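User: I've been going back and forth on whether these two constructs are worth ordering. Before I decide, could you fold them both?

Assistant: Sure. I'll take them in the order you sent them. The first construct and its C-alpha cells:
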Amino acid sequence: MDSAVEPCPLQQKVRIRLVVRNHDFGVYTHKKYRLTIGSASIDGNTGDRGMVDQLVPKEARKAVLKVWLAEGLPPRTWNLELGKLKPPSTAQGVQARLSNLGFEQGPVDGDAGAETRQALMAFQADFGIEPSGELDDGTRSRIDAVYRSRQEAPSLEGVWRPKPGKRFKRSKDRTANPPVPGVRDK
C-alpha cells in the first residue's frame, strides 16, 4: 500500500510542528504531551499556542503523539505519518487533509469509500457546499484552501512593510530617502 505522505527531502533533522486542536478547532493549551518516534520519547507541554514543536530524525516516517487533556484521564493518542502530504489532486491527499481537519474518514488509502463520502458530506455541510459526498473540483479546492488557511502564519495586518518592488534604505546623507516636499525636519 502506498503511503499518504512522501519522504521529506531534507538531509538532516527535520522539525515537526503542529497545533493540537479539538473538533471545533479550539486549541489545547498547556497540556502535557509525549511524542514517541521509534524507541525515543520526547516529553513536552503545548504552551500558550497549543504547539508541539520538536526536531526529529530525517528518516522518521511514523510517530505517536499522546496528549493528556485532563489530570487522571488516559491521554488522547494520534498516530502520525511524517513527511509531506500527497497533492490534493490525489484521493490520498484529500483523505489526509480531511483527517487533519478533523473529519474522520477511515484509513488514508486512496479508496474513496463510504467513510470518505461521509467525511466529504460533513465537510461540505460545514463549509457551505451542497452536501453530495462527491469529490468534485470545487470541493477539492475548498478542502485545500481550508487546510492551507489552518497552516498559515499569523496575519501581519497593521505592521508596516515597504511597498512591493521598492526597497527601504537608510542613509546618512538622505540620498536613498530624499526629503518629502512640504515636510520639514526639526
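The second construct, handled the same way:
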Amino acid sequence: MSVTLDLYGHPWSAPTREVRILCAELAVDYRFIEVKQAEAGDYLPEALNPACKVPMIDADGFILGEAHAILRYLAAGHDTAGVWYPTAPQVRARVDQWLDWQALRLGRLAADLVRQRRFRPGASDDAACAEAERLLTLILPEFDMELKTAPYICGQHPTLADIAIFTSVDYLRLAAFDLGRFAALAAWFETCVARAAWVATAPVLG
C-alpha cells in the first residue's frame, strides 16, 4: 500500500513526536519530512500551512497543522477500537481537558526548561530555569494525584492525553528535572517508556 500521509516535523519537536507515537500505535504508515530548525522555531512555507509551524500533515492534499488537531484527526480515521480518543462524552471530555492542560501549562514550561539546559550549554538563564522549576512544582501535583487511581490519566488504557503529556515529561527528564519527587508520575512515565512505539520516537542525543 502506498504512503498517503506526509508528516512535516523535526525530531526534537515534542508536538511532532506526539504524532509519530500515535502513528506507530495505530500502524499508520507515513513519510517523515524533516523541517530544519530556525532560530524562532520550526517553520513551513505559508502556502503549505498558514500557521507556518510543525507538525503538519498532508493527507492526500488535506493539510492540517497543530499537533492535537492532527492526533484527533488520525484517531478518528484509524482508531477502530476507540481507545485512544474514546467516544463516551465524559471520557472524551477528560482527554480533552488533559490535552489542554499539556498545551497551555506543562508543554510550555517543559519546552522552556529543556531549551535552556540542553541547547544553551554554559549560557542557560539560571533565573528562567528556577522560575520554570517553581511553576512545574505547582502544576505537576495535579497530574500526580490523578495517576494515583489509575495507571493512565483517563483510565486503564493510554489515550491521546498520555501521549501528549509523555513528550513533555520526557523533555523534563532531558532537562534533569527530578521526576522522583512525584511517585505516581514517575511510575506512569516508566510504564509509558516500556511501550516500544513511544521509546522508538525518542530524539537522538547529540
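Notes on the second construct follow. The chain has a mean pLDDT of 90. Residues 86 and 92 are 5 Å apart (CA to CA).
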